């Protein structure tokens, strides 16, 4: 599928976001381990979270998904020992979160599982989870000398470890936490910078003992079964990011994103856009399922360049491609550093973002761990591709909104991974 975009004269309206992807994965996985029934509403509609649901079903979890009136998952958890050996290979599709979180969980289960996914997933680094899980006593084999999926996991008894994570990755942290709650003895984890903390929040609400001290976590084995936790998932700030940037760079814009999760470990995008001069207003702040939520209004803005580095990176990691579009429209040179993790996402996002935005007229130098973006540039429509990467396809659409002429985006169906209604929502706000 391809989409063509021309610059609208204005960008106006309200956007209802899909449920947060990170939280939806976690709500489904953790409630599968609890004893009792949980109902998760506004569950993320993208293919990634459906991959998690189908893997959980293959592990014997009783759950059902209904799309109407709000996407809802009902889960009947049977406790930490309620899973069974899957009869076939688990398919995580495009989802790194599914693969890494489930591998941590399966490392502690007394059976054999094999997990794999699509070609993008099979190229993403898995040694980062295999090594520490093996230190805990797990037996995991992967392709290419234990670095890539498919992974074969022979689960069993685990013990706690003391471990410094080599990267600030919530997927790695969560994988280890899921193993640690079923290990004998406590596990101490230290992150180089704080990554998203949904796992700690939700598992603690379900009765796990997880103590934070700065960037350190102490995770204790669970002594009694987890309690189920029903929740309404807040809207995904990583999906809101496209509207926030589109609204800031388009000269005739006023957009409101509703019900957006604003967990401080995810709000790097708000800090960065504000520092760039974006006119953002945060209203109706409240709390939903133990997570802060708000509505965010964005208006046309005059942007200036920013430095995006250090602890800001894990707080904005999935938003950096679309922030690169903001930087292209900003006055001055934006420097993005410390973001080598972008190279091992659904695509090499340093390379693919720079390459495709350059086709539209951007001036970008790539670095091993980031980019230098020379702004402002005038985007001109061209044919570009999302490289099968959902966030890149949406990033290119945002650039197309302000480009002269027509921008054609190939591989446009990639948005289904995290935001299936993206193209419809875009049409609705373009006037
Ligand atoms: C996620 C964590 C991030 C992010 C991914 C979702 C999660 O990955 O890029 O889209 O749900 O834990 P890393 O933690 O590996 O950086």
What descriptors fit this protein?
alpha/beta, 27% strand, binds shikimate-3-phosphate, UDP-n-acetylglucosamine1-carboxyvinyl-transferase, Chain, 2 domains, 431 residues
What does this structure look like?
- The chain is an alpha/beta fold and 431 residues long.
- It has two domains: 2-18 and 234-429, Enolpyruvate transferase domain (UDP-n-acetylglucosamine1-carboxyvinyl-transferase, Chain, Alpha-beta prism); 21-219, Enolpyruvate transferase domain (UDP-n-acetylglucosamine1-carboxyvinyl-transferase, Chain, Alpha-beta prism), CATH 3.65.10.
- It contains 13 helices and 23 strands.
- The protein has a four-stranded mixed β-sheet.
- α6 links the parallel β10 (162-164) and β11 (187-190).
- The longest helix has 13 residues, at 21-33.
- The two termini are 23 Å apart.
- The mean pLDDT is 98.
- It binds shikimate-3-phosphate.
